[in-house]
Amino acid sequence: MTLNMGPQHPSTHGVLRVALELDGETVVEARPMIGYLHTGMEKQAEYKTYTQSIPQTDRMDYLAPMSNNLGLCLAAEKLLGIEAPERAQVVRVLLTELTRISAHCVWLGTHALDIGAMTVFFYCFREREKVLSIYEQVCGARLTASYFRVGGLAMDIPEGFLDRCQKFVDEMPAHVNEYEKLLSKNPIWLARLKGVALLSKADAIALGATGPVLRGSGVSWDLRKAQPYSGYDQYDFEIPTGETGDAYDRYTVRVQELRQSTRIAAQAIQKLRQLGGKGDYRLRDYKYVLPPKEDVKTSMEALIHHFKIVAHGFFPPVGEAYQAIEAPKGELGFYLVSDGTPRPWRMKVRSPSFVHLQTLPSMIRGRLVADVITAIGSIDIVLGEVDR
Amino acid sequence: MTVLAPERIEERLRVRFPEAAIRRQTGEAVRDVTLYVPADRLVEICTFLRDDPELDFAMLSWIAGVDWLPRDPRFEVVYGLLSLSRNARITLKVAVGEENPRVPSVVGVWPTADWHERETFDFYGIEFAGHPSLTRILLPEDWVGWPLRKDSPLGYEEVAFTHNTPGRILPDPGLKKLAPKKVRYRAH
Prior knowledge:
- The complex is a heterodimer of chains A (388) and B (188).
- By secondary structure, chain A is mostly helical.
- Chain A has a single domain (2-387), classed as Orthogonal Bundle (Cytochrome-c3 Hydrogenase, chain B).
- Chain A is built from 17 helices and 8 strands.
- In chain A, α3 (65-80) runs antiparallel to α4.
- The longest helix of chain A is centred in the first third of the chain and has 30 residues, at 86-115.
- Chain A is globular and about 75 Å long.
- Chain B has a domain at 6-129: NADH:ubiquinone oxidoreductase Nqo5 subunit (Beta Polymerase, domain 2).
- Chain B has 3 helices and 8 strands.
- A 5-stranded mixed β-sheet of chain B has the order 1-3-6-5-4.
- The interface between A and B is large, with 42 and 37 residues.
- β6 of chain A pairs parallel with β2 (29-30) of chain B, so a sheet runs across the interface.
């Protein structure tokens, strides 16, 4: 029997359709079908300047907008051969780690909801709400942040921002304990997750899995450690890994990552305090980066640069660059090809969810229909990013 | 973890495939090690890169198509490879002509290539010979055209006028012309 699961099924986390070939309750074959949320972002990027593409990226993995912003900005910076000032880099690390916490909270809440543990959802969304409020304070938007710019940040962090982050970071470990108390030894949780949705180490690598999915299968690979960007080599943190590669291992990896991200965020706050209240939050290279607003009002040159960058964008050299970051879901990469004009000739997004969804059939072949829900949940996909 | 120098990768390839035309892409802002490889040797080269113990490119990270209209050859298929054990990346490029664009599939080397190749086919119409089920993936099955080609328009529906809408009913020429309505202005 063939059964269509989705695209309106609540546990498919959006608009995923999986065609299941069933033998009774057992899955014989599964074919994920995607594209319901395709908006042609890569095509649109060819008609926009690099800066204009930043708001587009918010809408890819809409649970981790700041990570997507960072991916594009870093790729453009690599293409231009520039680097953001230290203050901007630390703020980027702080915010992307908070993003990771919020993205993992949504994942944990909804995954538990799929399995039937309702309570966790409310706990997790409580913390996510706090991160969204931090977003709101720093850039005015709760979901579509668009806060990072090529060469730094859109604006400096507001007053009282660090205290707010500090409070959140101080509270977070206790909250993670709460989640673990609700789930880690819960017999239903264990029965539904242990040994389910298995992905062996070899399969994970062959299918291109990255991030928590790869680490859950026992490969200690994290781009923040292996190919550090934004000064991640200066932070002290560990890479949690699983052993068997089942859904429970991916759960433990992500919960441990909540703790590690809190650790990194705390160190970033410390660094920002040492850097002091004021400083360059954007590169002073006005061929590529907007000059500060106060300069625009007082200096003729700054005004000209402002006008040129706003009117037609910056001109990168002819060339190409691929830059990957460790987004909450895995390797998020941007491949930019420039023909020397202010608009990219080609922008390719290597989104982790797209690649991870390919691992689904191998996880659920020969398992029960109920395990499909566990598998989809444990991969942690966002369809906005799959379909782009 | 031993660091793998990009020159070493190129050297290993040249030693193994002395007759193949492998060319390093040069340019001021080519930020990654990029090698042009011939399409007919692609699968062999990829298998070697994956299996060679010194290189160990066990993971295919991404595949992208690029349309270089009006250049000849028009298309490029770009492969981003990642070696977990050597912590190295390399980019391979295959040039594809406009007529009958065709590249051998690397699904046999890295199973993850399946969806990446389908996506590139979907966007550019580049065929991957030997792919198990090369169908559209993001666009609907009945979509006509290859949207990421440079000669494909960005989108939007054309506004319907009489001149561009065949079969549109034109107003009857014999219809009596309406006299303009008289407007009377009244003082307030």
